[in-house]
Amino acid sequence: MTAPPTAHPAPDAGAPSVSRRAFRWTALALTSVLLLTGCSDAGAGRDQLQVVEDPERASAASAPPTTEEPAGRVVPADGDITDVATAHGTLAAAMADEDAVRLYDLEKPGAEARTVSLPGEVTSLTTIEGTVVAAMPDAGAFARIDVGAGEADVVELDGAPAGVAADGDRTLVALRDAKAVQVLDADDRPVRTIRDDLYSADDVLVGDGGAVVLDQLRTAVFSVDLADGTISEGLRAGQGAADATTDEYGRVLVTDARNGALLAFDADPLLLRQRHPVPGGAYGIAYDAKRHVAWITLTERNQVVGYDVRGGQPEEKFRLPTVRQPDSVTVDERTSRVVIGSAAEEGIQVITP
């Protein structure tokens, strides 16, 4: 077991210089993280990244009834929203117990939604190069959705996909139950399945120079060596890693739902650069590359908070009231609108910060 090296602030020529105090804080946060080059410590005889004996995935903290009017506009939706994503001015929303994705025009969010039928319930949405990608673990498939045409191209898999990412012309798929990352070629043919003692593969992300798999059961992130076909070093991601995205610096941003924190990891080599406290039930996360802002939902408070992440530590820029149980969030890359989905049947919230 090796301690990670001292961190340096994220590069940004336009950002102000980082204070000595902020740098010391970041470095101190790194010293508390366990770096594992294998999945167990032979001397201790147990997994150093396992938090508890019988791990469970972190869930969103339960939200109280709202006490403030949600910011922006709320569009009704008859059900719990499981995830949201945007592409080309269109919002895609996945609903619980519905084998479809609904598409909304962000310029006219109150207009009737279009529906794209799919072979299974969608548990996660992401946007890859302007295309919304929907993961359907129960159907053993994911779908690329053309939001303009309202059509879906379904890719069947031998496994239950939990997350999808792109690495050049290859597609990476996190197969949760198989505890593996599958690599597909440009024609969506499987060319390699990478596994190495993961507890679960809950998402896969491509940062600057490397791929990272999120293991929510172990509450850790692991580096994926696509060339060698191996899972390499791992880092603890708090006490309850919940959601993840990437920023324009190529870092992987992760929410810690149990401790209430935002963590920023470099992908290659895998290093924790920042750990910032985010009390209030941190859960969903999205990133606005135009404003350099990471948006995090706080389900215990029915709020969403926006942090500028260019400096040595995140700086709060926005704090806004939301619909009840704001489990999911996305950002429209064209307009920086923030869209939040309620998992308590309170609809879709569209905010222009």
Automatic annotation (TrEMBL):
Bias (Low complexity) occurs at 58-69
| Region ranges (Disordered) | 54-76
Superkingdom of the organism of origin: Bacteria
Name of the protein in question = Lipoprotein
